[in-house]
């Protein structure tokens, strides 16, 4: 276990101080020449104490160094580690305002914190692209500008129903790095239809495996009227690399009667309408307390499909008391093997304007009941 520093109570007079109040002192000179930037990921060994000499964390004691992006730690670390070079060991006195505050709660240490940090290695983070789309950039139908950074080696592009493996880096319109898969473990697999950055799926649909592009997405397209917390106002700049993709099942055709329930649809007192598409083989109806397995596809009344277990190639299982009211009521009308179309009014769905990426208004679902678990 690391020894308690003799100067743990306060920074000594010969400590170097910055305008923010951060104080530090070099314990061992480094062998490197470059300093990390805030967007870089560093690997370090460290130990941390409160000013009463209590050690609250130590990678040294665990015997395993820690790696993290410098944008993802307390302000004192973000500022302080950028002063270092590889091989250097430095002691920091980090005031509460650059750490967790005076009384943070949640088990985190408060007040002035003291850290011994040894910088082992630096992994360079993504560099911000141009903040404005260049004149030679191309545009999607929706109005997203994009430009090829590196050509791909594949021979076809993904479709909306496919699952893509992508590397993504997101910057604000002012050039601040917001998120990066490079800092979060590498490329991610995601169904393209589930990628919630407006305009980006359309860009990816133009790409080949191995291709890298930068996209400049206007704010109204990127997030609509409800941007996620933490994102500054303005557009979004995205660097995307399509590593590979797995083909999904083509989406089912849009129902001809998607705009409204036909006259021969069955209607309940709640306003739920439905129509039998295929008869079932079972005899029992599920209860609200049962768990069911289904295949389903959902559309808005303009014909836009917002979700489908069919395109994912995997049925969904859930408790009937854990879904929207229209599902809870409607699936109880069915038997195993049955396929039915439902027109679910907003009051039995997510409401008229639910936000959070959920569809509003009347929703249309084709549901096939595969199994009932009592």
Description:
With 374 residues, this protein is mainly β. The protein has 3 domains: 16-123, Chitinase A, domain 3 (Roll); 138-246, Chitinase A, domain 3, CATH 3.10.50.40; 266-373, Chitinase A, domain 3 (Roll), CATH 3.10.50.40. Helices cover 8% and strands 34% of the residues. It contains 6 helices and 21 strands. The protein has helices spanning 59-62, 75-81, 200-204, 219-222, 309-312, 325-331; strands spanning 16-17, 23-28, 41-50, 55-58, 66-69, 89-94, 113-123, 138-139, 145-150, 163-172, 177-180, 188-191, 212-217, 236-246, 266-267, 273-278, 291-300, 305-308, 316-319, 339-344, 363-373. It is elongated. 30% of the residues are buried.
Q: What is the global morphology?
A: elongated
Helix content: under 10%
The biggest sheet amounts to: 7 strands, antiparallel
CATH class of the largest domain: Alpha Beta
Overall pLDDT level: 94
Annotation keywords:
374 residues; seven-stranded antiparallel β-sheet; Chitinase A, domain 3; elongated; mainly beta; 3 domains; 21 strands
Q: What are the SSEs and their pairings?
A:
Elements: E1 16-17, E2 23-28, E3 41-50, E4 55-58, H1 59-62, E5 66-69, H2 75-81, E6 89-94, E7 113-123, E8 138-139, E9 145-150, E10 163-172, E11 177-180, E12 188-191, H3 200-204, E13 212-217, H4 219-222, E14 236-246, E15 266-267, E16 273-278, E17 291-300, E18 305-308, H5 309-312, E19 316-319, H6 325-331, E20 339-344, E21 363-373
Antiparallel strand pairs: 1-2, 2-6, 3-4, 3-5, 3-7, 6-7, 8-9, 9-13, 10-11, 10-12, 10-14, 13-14, 15-16, 16-20, 17-18, 17-19, 17-21, 20-21
């Amino acid at each position: 276990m690391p020894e308690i520093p003799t100067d743990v109570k306060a920074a000594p007079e010969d400590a170097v101080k910055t305008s923010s109040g951060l104080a530090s002192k070099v314990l061992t000179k480094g062998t490197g020449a470059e300093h990390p930037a805030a967007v870089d990921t560093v690997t370090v060994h460290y130990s941390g104490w409160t000013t009463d000499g209590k050690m609250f964390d130590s990678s040294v004691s665990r015997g395993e160094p820690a790696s993290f992006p410098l944008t993802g730690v307390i302000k004192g670390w973000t500022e302080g580690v950028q002063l270092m070079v590889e091989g250097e060991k430095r002691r920091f006195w980090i005031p509460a305002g650059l750490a967790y505050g005076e009384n943070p709660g949640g088990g985190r240490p408060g007040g002035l914190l003291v850290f011994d940090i040894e910088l082992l290695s630096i992994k360079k983070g993504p560099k911000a692209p141009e903040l404005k789309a260049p004149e030679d950039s191309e545009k999607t139908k929706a109005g997203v500008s994009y430009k090829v950074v590196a050509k791909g080696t594949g021979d076809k592009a993904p479709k909306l129903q496919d699952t893509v493996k992508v590397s993504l880096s997101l910057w604000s319109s002012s050039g601040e790095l917001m998120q990066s898969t490079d800092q979060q473990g590498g490329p991610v697999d995601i169904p393209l239809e589930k990628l919630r950055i407006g305009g980006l799926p359309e860009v990816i649909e133009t790409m080949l495996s191995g291709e890298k592009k930068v996209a400049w997405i206007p704010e109204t397209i990127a997030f609509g009227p409800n941007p996620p917390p933490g994102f500054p106002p303005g557009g979004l700049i995205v660097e995307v690399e399509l590593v590979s993709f797995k083909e999904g099942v083509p989406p089912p055709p849009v129902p001809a009667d998607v705009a409204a329930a036909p006259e021969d649809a069955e209607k309940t007192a709640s306003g739920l309408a439905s129509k039998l598409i295929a008869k079932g083989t079972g005899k029992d109806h599920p209860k609200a307390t049962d768990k069911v397995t289904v295949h389903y596809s959902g559309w808005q009344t303009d014909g836009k499909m917002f979700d489908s277990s069919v395109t994912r190639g995997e049925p969904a299982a859930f408790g009937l008391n854990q879904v929207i009211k229209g599902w809870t009521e409607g699936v109880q009308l069915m038997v195993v093997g049955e396929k039915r179309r439902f027109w679910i009014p907003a009051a039995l769905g997510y409401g008229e304007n639910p936000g959070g990426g959920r569809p509003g208004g009347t929703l249309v679902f084709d549901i096939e009941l595969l199994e009932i678990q009592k």
